[in-house]
Amino acid sequence: MDDLDVLLTNDDGIDATGLQVLYEELSTVADVTVVAPDSDQSAIGRAISHSVTVRDHERGYAIEGTPVDCVVAGLSTLVPETDIVVSGCNRGANLGHHTLGRSGTISAAVEAAFFGVPAIAVSTYVPADEFAYGTDFGEVEVPAHQYSEAVQAARFLLERTRDQPVFEHADYLNVNAPITDRATGEMTLTRPSHTYRMDATREGDTVELEDNIWEMMSNGSVPDEDGTDRRAILNNKVSVSPLTAPHTTEHHDELDAIVGEYPPAE
Fold first, then answer.
1. In which residue ranges of the chain is pLDDT below 70?
2. Distances (CA, A) of 9 to 73, 84, 131
3. DSSP code string of 50-103
4. What is the dihedral of CA 96, 101, 107, 110, to 10 degrees?
5. Distance between CA atoms of residues 145 and 6, nearest Å
6. pLDDT over 70, % of the chain
7. Which of the seven top EC classes does this enzyme belong to (predicted)?
8. Which of 134, 178, 212, 250 is the most buried (most CB within 10 A)?
9. What is the phi/psi pair of residue 74, to 5°?
10. Considering only CA atoms, which of 136, 238, 220 is closest in space to residue 177?
């Protein structure tokens, strides 16, 4: 597979441990070029810049911009020969429908899909009990060995999808893996969970926003059924969700009728 060209990006930044271990693993089976943000761009979604500064890096290129900037710059001019984009490995899971537009990791995969290039987004789930209560997640360090299930899954999917028509039916794969200490070595096909538990509280001039799903996951009380990405992770399995990028819907008879009545009668 030495002739397979991989563009590797992320949203945690080019010096993130997750990207480094993924680069090392994928480089054993493909020609990997990193095009990643020069600093942490987590949860920035599909934000894009008008122009970015690029500098050479020992593994490829560092971009002063977002994950989407990296994909656009990479596929357009820096690594135009790319066969597949891999985004990750993210420190923290990207589970559920509500994360799909929020995550920089997933947004890089979505951007690749609009270029017609297949992509794999890879993240690892860090349970709340792995870090001290009250600790900001941005300060949580995940050692390299705890990414091993995620990077093994990424390599496996990279190799196996190359000669199979997987990306004729999906634009990208959203992959989430448990940290190594909890993994079972099992992989399952999933769909994003619909469970949504965002909340906000106000105190004076400040409104605190919180995603309560993480606390629910820590005690196993998430009401997600079998077949969903979060249920797979709670069962310590690698979750693989095949997804499409265009935001479209089926024909809507009721809306069709409403549109046909415009402009309204005087």
1. 1-2, 129-139
2. 11, 11, 26
3. S---EEEETTEEEESS-HHHHHHHIIIIISTT-SEEEEEEEEB---SGGGTTT-
4. 90
5. 23
6. 95
7. hydrolase
8. 178
9. -65, -50
10. 238
Q: Can you tell me the distance from the alpha carbon of 235 to that of 72, in angstroms, rounded to the nearest whole number?
A: 36
> What angle do the packed helices 17-26 and 148-161 form, to 10 degrees?
40
Q: What are the residues facing 9 on neighbouring strands?
A: 87
Confidence at residue 138, expressed as pLDDT on a 0 to 100 scale? 59
Q: Domain ranges in the chain? A: 5-194+224-260
The pLDDT of residue 132: 41
CATH superfamily of this structure's domain 5-194+224-260: Survival protein SurE-like phosphatase/nucleotidase (3.40.1210.10)
Sheet holding 84-91, edge to edge: 54-57, 60-63, 31-37, 5-9, 84-91, 119-125, 172-178, 238-243, 187-189
- Sequential DSSP letters for 165-207: GGGGT-SEEEEEEE-GGG--S-EEE-B------EEEEEETTEE
* Cα angle for residues 215, 217, 223 (degrees, 5° grid): 115
Q: For residues 127 and 131, what is the distance between their CA atoms, to the nearest angstrom?
A: 8
Binding site as annotated, residues: 11-12, 42, 90
The Cα-based distances of 200 to 163, 196, 197, 209 in angstroms read 47, 13, 10, 4
AA identity, residue 239:
S
* pLDDT for residue 246: 79
Cα dist from 167 to 164, 242, 247, whole Å: 8, 9, 17
Per-residue pLDDT tens over the stretch 60-100: 999 999 999 999 999 999 999 999 999 999 999 999 999 99
pTM of the model: 0.91
Binding residues for a divalent metal cation are: 11-12, 42, 90
Question: H or E stretch including 149?
Answer: helix 148-161
> In which element (H, E) is residue 25 found?
helix 17-26
